[in-house]
């Protein structure tokens, strides 16, 4: 899926109307029908009680009026409050004409804000993607009134006052919705933590927008859903052997943080790697060998931290960072790794690297090393680690700019972790992930991701971007499967590891395409007599 700007959304609207030869207001009616379908499926007339629809002067308000009509026809008790304006959109006027007199309509004024008893269901159809400036005056007073009233707010398309694709001033008025029901494609604003209190849970309803326009639209915002990674994992050929799926090297662990190495190793094994060797501080040798018998282990000469880089020749990918610590000797290991991973006569492509956790912090302290990053190196920072590599971000939108710029400048793949983990590519694309849940906000979840990415980068048949996009998606999916089994509160990182297999299985290619074994007879006369 892609994400469009507010301006592109308007173009998409128009392209759909032109391409499908739609009569006036047809798209608005589709949007209203989709919204009503979503709403009525969740809340019956009894449970809903009296519904207040707040309508602005544009097509968002038109949606609100058309929704009011549908809910009235469905026996819901609906009343409408209109925000007065100098001009109304054509679709608004159409919907207003069709609203029966039986639906009470009041005009909002400063002195007469609508009455909103607590727990009233309020549909916010004041402003949508046509918002041209922050709310002020009467609309802002109405939003404040709504917040005080404590209604159950559901936003139509987008909470009013929120820009679809850009930040609004810190103290500007924005509706706080429990649910946002949007049309066609997700909006960038939905994916950013700073907007969580406005957007609530969001839902996308299909309204048959032009697929041709969407396919050709120029945007660098993408949303990784199940379709984007369907069949992304190549089937394992019948005569494959452990060498076929790569030999990965994990550099991880320090005193007190051996668990990070154990989790990353477990995730790498479950991620389908052929062979895994872990170089760990020698104090962790027994712990590691006992907990990960499938992996090989090279104890470092140092007991408490890593101090030595093994010969890289046998390996197809290297992961460094989980539980590493920031000892000077480990910094030297990282430096040597970056120097040796570059393409050479014996290795035409740079060695795939995954850099995480303390290895990122070391890079942040020695930014001169960024110039050594081999092309397509994968960095997996959480927001604080990312800012140590760049600069503090003013807000979530600025952080995305920094992220995009960083990935392009250093020609690497940056996985900015969070609720909608964002993968930035050297081409300047940003791919937001759709899987995962707050149960994964628990120590060690990131180490699991590093292990999975290590396995997928060691896989010879997966190009760098596809491997990382699949890894991020499947990591979230494994977290979702784990949460379904244990609940979110009880979820620990090891549960994610245990669900990697089922998560990847959903995206494995079929070994044999699904075709019948024998020709299907279409002409009965050729069949047996
Ligand atoms: N593509 C789709 O998926 C579909 C989209 N549809 C729906 O259309 C919606 C977009 O409609 P829209 O373009 O008419 O804009 P909308 O947000 O209603 O408001 C514009 C009006 O508000 C005004 N205004 C703006 N800011 C203001 C402010 N701060 N304070 C005061 N006034 C302000 C602005 O005035 P102006 O900026 O000209 O001064 C103008 O009059 C979209 O969100 C969805 O619900 C569906 O019907 C069909 C499928
Ligand atoms: N609220 C959330 N929703 C979805 N995924 C989450 C959420 N919180 C954390 N995660 C995921 O869990 C992982 C946490 O990584 P990280 O912060 O590095 O943890 P740790 O350092 O403890 O291993 C990331 O992949 C992140 O995307
Ligand atoms: K709205």
Automatic annotation (TrEMBL):
Residues 9-215 form the YjeF N-terminal domain. The keyword NAD applies. It comes from the Bacteria. Pfam families: Carb_kinase (PF01256), YjeF_N (PF03853). (6S)-NADPHX binds at residues 59-63, 128-134, 157, 260, 323, 382, 447. K(+) binds at residues 60, 124, 160. It catalyses: (6R)-NADHX = (6S)-NADHX; (6S)-NADPHX + ADP = AMP + phosphate + NADPH + H(+); (6R)-NADPHX = (6S)-NADPHX; (6S)-NADHX + ADP = AMP + phosphate + NADH + H(+). The keyword ATP-binding applies. AMP binds at residues 417-421, 446. Its EC number is 4.2.1.136, 5.1.99.6. Keywords: ATP-binding, Isomerase, Lyase, Metal-binding, Multifunctional enzyme, NAD, NADP, Nucleotide-binding, Potassium. Residues 225-507 form the YjeF C-terminal domain. Catalyzes the dehydration of the S-form of NAD(P)HX at the expense of ADP, which is converted to AMP. Together with NAD(P)HX epimerase, which catalyzes the epimerization of the S- and R-forms, the enzyme allows the repair of both epimers of NAD(P)HX, a damaged form of NAD(P)H that is a result of enzymatic or heat-dependent hydration. This is Bifunctional NAD(P)H-hydrate repair enzyme. It comes from Hymenobacter antarcticus.
């Amino acid at each position: 899926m892609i994400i469009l700007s507010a301006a592109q959304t308007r173009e998409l609207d128009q392209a759909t109307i032109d391409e499908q030869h739609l009569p006036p207001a047809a798209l608005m009616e589709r949007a209203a029908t989709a919204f009503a379908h979503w709403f009525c499926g969740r809340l019956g007339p009894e449970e809903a009680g009296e519904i207040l629809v707040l309508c602005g002067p544009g097509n968002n308000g038109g949606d609100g009026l058309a929704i009011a009509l549908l809910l009235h026809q469905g026996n819901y008790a609906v009343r409408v409050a209109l925000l007065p304006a100098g001009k109304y959109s054509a679709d608004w006027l159409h919907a207003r004409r069709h609203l029966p007199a039986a639906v009470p309509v009041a005009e909002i004024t400063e002195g007469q804000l609508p009455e909103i008893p607590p727990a009233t269901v309020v549909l916010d159809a004041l402003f949508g993607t046509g918002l041209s400036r922050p709310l002020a005056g009467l609309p802002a007073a109405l939003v404040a009134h709504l917040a005080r009233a404590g209604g159950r707010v559901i936003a139509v398309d987008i909470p009013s006052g929120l820009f679809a694709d850009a930040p609004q001033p810190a103290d500007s008025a924005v509706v706080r919705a429990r649910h946002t029901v949007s049309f066609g494609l997700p909006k960038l604003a939905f994916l950013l933590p700073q907007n969580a209190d406005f957007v609530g849970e969001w839902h996308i309803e299909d309204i048959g927008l032009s697929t041709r326009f969407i396919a050709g639209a120029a945007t660098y915002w993408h949303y990784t859903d199940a379709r984007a990674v369907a069949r992304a994992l190549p089937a394992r050929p019948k005569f494959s052997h452990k060498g076929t799926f790569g030999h990965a090297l994990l550099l991880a662990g320090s005193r007190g943080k051996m668990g990070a190495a154990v989790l990353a190793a477990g995730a790498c094994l479950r991620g389908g790697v052929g062979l895994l060797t872990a170089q760990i501080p020698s104090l962790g040798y027994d712990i590691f060998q006992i907990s990960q018998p499938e992996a090989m282990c090279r104890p470092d000469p140092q007991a408490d931290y890593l101090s030595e880089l093994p010969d890289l020749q046998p390996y197809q990918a290297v992961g460094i960072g989980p539980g590493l610590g920031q000892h000077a000797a480990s910094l030297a290991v990282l430096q040597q790794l970056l120097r040796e991973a570059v393409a050479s006569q014996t290795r035409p492509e740079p060695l795939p690297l995954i850099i995480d956790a303390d290895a990122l912090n070391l890079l942040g302290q020695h930014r001169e090393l960024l110039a050594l990053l081999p092309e397509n190196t994968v960095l997996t920072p959480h927001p604080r680690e990312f800012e140590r590599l760049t600069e503090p971000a003013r807000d979530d939108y600025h952080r995305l700019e920094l992220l995009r710029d960083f990935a392009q400048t250093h020609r690497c793949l940056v996985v900015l972790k969070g609720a909608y983990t964002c993968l930035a590519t050297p081409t300047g694309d940003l791919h937001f992930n759709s899987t995962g849940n707050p149960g994964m906000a628990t120590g060690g979840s990131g180490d699991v991701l590093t292990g999975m990415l290590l396995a997928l980068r060691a896989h010879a048949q997966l190009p760098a971007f596809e491997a990382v996009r699949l890894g991020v998606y499947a990591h979230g999916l494994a977290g979702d499967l784990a949460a379904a089994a244990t609940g979110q509160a009880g979820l620990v990182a090891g549960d994610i590891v245990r669900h990697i297999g089922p998560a990847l299985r959903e995206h494995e290619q079929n070994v044999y395409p699904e075709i019948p074994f024998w020709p299907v007879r279409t002409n009965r006369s050729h069949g047996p007599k």
